[in-house]
Amino acid sequence: MASELRKRIDRQRRERTRRTLKDAALVVFVRQGYHEALVSDIVAEAGVGQGTFYRNFESKRQIFELLFDDFVASLMAEFADMSTHLPRDAEEYRSASVDAMVAVAQLLRENRDVVLLFLRQGPAIDSDFAQRLGEVQDQFAGLAKLFLDYAIANGFARTCDSDVVSQAIVGVTLRFIGRWLEDRFPFESLRDRITEVVDFAFLGIGPRPAPETSEAGEGRRKT
User: What domains appear along the chain, each with residue ranges and CATH number?
Assistant: First the structure.
């Protein structure tokens, strides 16, 4: 029993140390940039020795990618509710899309410097990380395709090439996010801006469909 307790305590200590190092690395990367950051800067920020760093991580490259993966996982988690409670019609689909994207946008805004770090410096780290960024875009496109295929199968989205449309949705969204984080759009209008993006996905550039009138409904009842 004592041995198991000791193992659990050691695991918890190691997890705390790794968290401390990851938090410190994020501060240093944001402050200095990936290429200018040194392991010595990270351990100084964390208040530990370099030996502690290398007992937990192979390199600053590894810790950078782990930070990126953690952040991507937090973004994907914002779609969990939508995935669990799939929309029953087009209006629920649209409303759930707006809500999920607003939650993601708020998370991005709260971590603006981190997001810009990944977007601006990630592609220049090496070809493997640039590929990883592309894989994440495909991951989000796959999620969009899942929702779109479900809507098509249930009759509240038109039949289309969901692979192409999902990639287009992600491309438009990424462009919007990049410009928004660079303060091209006011933060106060976040929900309105996102609703505009979602409506573009749902309605394209055509006129909005006219709401069904009560007179039309009365006409059907008389028939």
Answer: 1-57 (1.10.10.60), 67-223 (1.10.357.10)
